[in-house]
Amino acid sequence: MDEKSAKKEKIPRQPMPEQKPEVRKRNFEEVPLGYDEETAIREAQRCLQCKSPACVQGCPVSVDIPGFIKLIREREFTKAIRHIWERNSLPAVCGRVCPQEIQCEGMCILGKKDRPVAIGNLERFVADREREHGTGDLPPKQHPTGKRVAVVGSGPSGLTVAGDLILKGHDVTIFEAFHKPGGVLVYGIPEFRLPKEIVYSEVNFLERLGVRLECNVVVGRTVSLDELFEEGYDAIYIGVGAGLPRFLNIPGENLIGVYSANEYLTRANLMKAYLFPKYDTPIVRGRNVAVFGAGNVAMDAARTAMRLGAERVRIVYRRSRDEMPARAAEIHHAEEEGIEFHLLTAPKRFIGNESGRVTGVECLRMELGKPDESGRRRPVPVEGSEFELDCDLAVIAVGAAANPLLTQSTEGLEINERGYIVADPETGKTTKRGVWAGGDIVTGQATVILAMGAGRKASDSIHKYLTWGW
Amino acid sequence: MFEILKRHEMADGTVVMNEISAPKIAAKARPGQFVILKANETGERIPLTMADTDPKKGTITVIYQVVGKSTALFRGMQVGEKYQDVIGPLGQPTHLEKLGKVACVGGGTGIAVLHPITRALKEIGNYVYAVIGARTKDLLILEDKMKAASHELEVCTDDGTYGHHGFVTDVLRDLLERENIKLVVGIGPVPMMKFLCKLTAEYGVKTLVSLNPIMVDGTGMCGCCRVTVGGKTRFACVDGPEFDGHAVDFDELAKRLDAYKEEERMAYEKFMKERQAG
Ligand SMILES: Cc1cc2nc3c(=O)[nH]c(=O)nc-3n(C[C@H](O)[C@H](O)[C@H](O)COP(=O)(O)OP(=O)(O)OC[C@H]3O[C@@H](n4cnc5c(N)ncnc54)[C@H](O)[C@@H]3O)c2cc1C
Ligand SMILES: Cc1cc2nc3c(=O)[nH]c(=O)nc-3n(C[C@H](O)[C@H](O)[C@H](O)COP(=O)(O)OP(=O)(O)OC[C@H]3O[C@@H](n4cnc5c(N)ncnc54)[C@H](O)[C@@H]3O)c2cc1C
Ligand code: SF4
Ligand code: SF4
Ligand code: FES
Ligand SMILES: [Mg+2]
C-alpha cells in the first residue's frame, strides 16, 4: 500500500498536448489536442480516491469525480461516461470550458502540495472517446406522458432541460432564434476552444432521443409565450441567455471597426466570417487591435483577431491582473500567442478618420483605490495620464445584459431592476404559471455549468409539475 | 418551409419580387416589420422588409433590389427553390394613427417598404398623398399598387422620362405649401431621406423614416445596427427600423453602411466570375 501511494505521488500532472503557439495563432483548429488512453490512465492514477472528496464540492453539479476517475483507471471508459452523464449531460463541453481552477480542480486535495488532478482534461477525454468510439446507444426513455414542453433557447441551459425531460417521457420542442442551435457555445465561444462539431453532436443526440428543434423562431416575435400555451404546451422553460451587448458609452463608439464582442464573435464563429469570401459574411480584419475587458469573452475576441491576421493585439483592462475574470488557461494561451496586456488602463474616447473608421483610442491610466462593493480594489483614474493607443479594430467585451425582447412581450413575468427574470433559485419557477427560467437570463452572464445546473433543477421541478401540478 | 411560390422581376430586372411560404411569420407580421433571410449554408443574413403578407395563404412577399453578392444570389433562386432560413417578423410595426392628411414619399426600392405602410394609413382613415420616384422610368416600381394604396399619387423621375421631372422632395414641398400635412413618411436611399427631413423640418411636420443599417441577428444581441437618434444610440432592429427623421444622424448612418465596401465588391466580383465560369 505504502509503496503504491509513494509511486502515485511521483506521477506528475500529465501535460495536455497542444498546438504550438506560433502555429495555432494563425489557424482556427482546436488548441489542446486531448489525452490519449495511456496518458489519461496515468493522470487518473494520480487521484487519491478521497473518502470525502473536496473536488466534488467544487463542482456546481456535483459530478462524482473520484467515481468516474476510478473507472478510467479500470479502462471502463463507457461506464465512466455514463457515470458523468448522471450529473452532467455536456461533459465534452464542460471539460473544455469550465473554470476548473476555481471549481473542481481548485478544491482538489492534491493541489495543496502539488498540482491538482486534471479533472477537466479527464472529463473531456471520456466524452471525446464516447463520441468517437462509443456505441452511440441511446439511454432508455420512460413511457410517453402525453405532456408537451417548450424550451426557449438552445444554449447549455435549454439543452439540459430538453435532455432531462425527453428521458422522462415528455414531448419536448426547442425554439431557437438563430438559424443554428447551441447558444453561446456556437455563436460566442470560438472553434479553437470548442469545436462546433461537438455541440452539433450533442444536439443531434437530443434529436435522436426525439427532441424537436425549431430554429428561426424568435419567441416574443414569431410566437408569444401565451400562444405556445394556446398551441397546447403544458410547460415552458426560458433559457434565452444574456444576449444584450454592453457598450462603454464613450464618444466615438459608433465608428466603423468598433464592435461589440457579440457582433465580432457572431460574425467570426456563427457566420464563419474567418472563411470569407467562401462564406458571405464580412468582418473587419484589424492589423492593430484593442480589446476592452479581460474575461473569457475578451480573450476569445483577442485570440480570434490574432487568427484573422492581426500584427498586434492588446487587451485593455482597467483593473489589475489579479482581477482578470477569464479562465486561467485562456489567459495563459493568450499570452503564449503574443497578446499584450495593458492593465490599469481605461478607454476615454475613440478617435476616427473622415470616412468614419476607428484609428485609435484615448486612454487613461488607473491606480487601485479602496475596495468597492465586490471587495475588489476600485480602479481610479490618474489625472492627466491620457495617452493615445493606435488601433484599426476595437472590440468591446465588458459584459452582457438582459435582452428585453422576450420579457417585454410577455405579461405576468416578473423581472428585476436589471431586466433579468425573477426565478426561484431552487426550482427555476417564475412568477408566471407554467413558466420556468434559468441560466444567464436569470443570473446574468455566468458559466456553462451554472446554466446547466439551473436547467437540471428546473427540469426536476417541471417534471414534478407535469406529474402533480404547480 | 420558406419555398419561393411566386417570383417576378421589375425595373429592368434590377428589382425582384419573391412570395415565400412562411406561415408563422405571415400570421404575425404587421406593416413596417421585416424579415432576415439566408439563402444557404454559406450565406449571410440579409434583412428585407415585408412588402406584403397573406396570413391565409401563409405567405410573405419581399421586394429587393439587386445590389451585391447576396441579392444577386437571391435573384438566381427560382420558384420551387427554398431559402434555408427566414426569421421574423422583426422590428417594431409602424405606429399607425388617424391624423388627417399624410404624405408617403418613396424613392427607389424604398417604395416597396413604403407600400404596406401607405395602405395601412389609408385603411385607418387618413387622406393619403403618395409621391414616388426613381432615377428613370424603367426603374420605377409599384406604381399601380401605390395608386391603389393612396388617394392621390404623384410620380417623379430624375431624368424626366416619366411624370414630374425632378426629385420627390420638389413635389413634397408643393404639398407642404398647399396642404395641412400632419405626417410625412419618407423611405428611400439615405441621401433622399436626409434631404426630405431637412425639408419637413422647415415646415415643422413630423416625419418618419425607415432606416436600413447593416444587421446581423436582428434581435438586439449584436449592436451592429446601432444608429444615433436624438444623440442617443438605438438599435434599429429592435427599437426601429422607423424613427423620427428629424433626430436621425444620417451622416453616421451613411458612413456605417460603407463599412464593408471593399469586401462587398470582392465578394460580388468573385460571385459573378464563378457564375460565368460555371
Ligand atoms: C464569448 C464567450 C465565452 C465564454 N466562455 C466561457 C467559458 O470558457 N466557460 C464558461 O463556463 N462560460 C463561458 N461563457 C459563458 C457561458 O457561455 C454562458 O454562461 C452560457 O452559455 C449561458 O447559457 P444559457 O443557456 O443561459 O444561454 P445562451 O448560451 O446564451 O443561449 C441562449 C440561446 O437562446 C436564444 N434566444 C435568445 N432569445 C431568444 C428568443 N426570444 N427566442 C428564441 N431563442 C432565443 C439565443 O439565440 C441562444 O441560442 C462565455 C460566454 C461568451 C459570450
Ligand atoms: C430593416 C431593413 C429592411 C430592408 N428592406 C429592404 C427591402 O425591402 N428591399 C431592398 O431591396 N433592400 C432592403 N434592405 C437593404 C438590404 O438588406 C441590402 O440591400 C442587402 O443586405 C444587400 O446585400 P448584398 O449582399 O446583396 O449587397 P452588398 O454588396 O453586400 O451590400 C450592399 C450594401 O447593402 C448594405 N448591406 C450589406 N449587408 C447588409 C446587411 N447584412 N444588412 C443590411 N444592409 C446590408 C450595405 O450598405 C452595403 O454597402 C433593408 C435593410 C434593412 C436594414
Ligand atoms: S462539470 Fe466542470 S466543475 Fe464539474 S467536474 Fe466537470 S469540469 Fe469540473
Ligand atoms: S480531491 Fe483530488 S485527489 Fe481527491 S478525489 Fe478529488 S480529484 Fe481525486
Ligand atoms: S442587428 Fe444585431 S442588434 Fe440589431
Ligand atoms: Mg453582402
UniProtKB/TrEMBL annotation, chain A:
Keywords tagged on the record: Oxidoreductase
EC number(s) reported in the record: 1.4.1.13
Gene Ontology molecular-function annotations: glutamate synthase (NADPH) activity; iron-sulfur cluster binding
Sequence ranges assigned to domain Dihydroprymidine dehydrogenase in this UniProt record: 24-134
The protein's enzyme class: oxidoreductase
Keyword Amino-acid biosynthesis set for record: no
Residue intervals of the FAD/NAD(P)-binding domain: 148-454
Region annotation Disordered: where it falls in the sequence: 1-27
Biased segments, Basic and acidic residues type: 1-12
Protein name as it appears in the record: NADPH-dependent glutamate synthase
Automatic annotation (TrEMBL), chain B:
Transmembrane segments annotated in the record for this chain: none
Statement: the UniProt record of this protein carries the keyword Iron-sulfur: yes
Cofactors required: FAD; [2Fe-2S] cluster
Gene3D superfamilies, per the entry: Nucleotide-binding domain of ferredoxin-NADP reductase (FNR) module, Translation factors
MF terms (GO), sorted A to Z: 2 iron, 2 sulfur cluster binding; flavin adenine dinucleotide binding; metal ion binding
Binding site for FAD: I63, Y64, Q65
Residue ranges occupied by any Dihydroorotate dehydrogenase electron transfer subunit iron-sulphur cluster binding domain in the UniProt entry: 212-249
CDD domains assigned to the protein according to its UniProt record, in alphabetical order: DHOD_e_trans_like1 (cd06219)
Cofactor note: Binds 1 FAD per subunit. Binds 1 [2Fe-2S] cluster per subunit.
GO biological process, one term: pyrimidine nucleotide biosynthetic process
Residues annotated for [2Fe-2S] cluster binding in this entry: C222, C225, C237
Keywords, in A-Z order: 2Fe-2S, FAD, Flavoprotein, Iron, Iron-sulfur, Metal-binding
Keyword Membrane: no
NCBIfam families in the record: PRK06222.1
Protein name: Sulfide/dihydroorotate dehydrogenase-like FAD/NAD-binding protein
Organism whose genome encodes this protein: Desulfoglaeba alkanexedens ALDC
